[in-house]
Amino acid sequence: MRLSDLKQGERGRIKSFHSSELELKLMEMGCIPGEEVVVEQIAPLGDPISIKVAGYSLSLRKNEANEIIIER
């Protein structure tokens, strides 16, 4: 399952990344495998997505959230 598949209020744990292109950027922002994420808000048109990870809020574009593989 991908982070972009979660609905507002749902949570999951980061398992891996789909591609290595954004992996370093996402890890620098706190999206590290094993870290729990909670979807806080989703914009009306679905982009961006606000998540809570590593104790802070982070906004991601839908294509970035689509790169994060999670487990529930």
Automatic annotation (TrEMBL):
Domain Ferrous iron transporter FeoA-like: 1-72
Origin species: Flaviaesturariibacter amylovorans
Keyword Iron: yes
Phylogenetic classification of the source organism: Bacteria, Pseudomonadati, Bacteroidota, Chitinophagia, Chitinophagales
PANTHER family, per database record: FE(2+) TRANSPORT PROTEIN A
Alphabetic keyword roster: Iron
Cited InterPro entries: Fe-transptr_FeoA-like, FeoA, FeoA_core_dom, Transcriptional_repressor_C
Domain of life: Bacteria
Keyword Iron annotated: yes
Signal peptide: none
Protein name: Ferrous iron transporter FeoA-like domain-containing protein
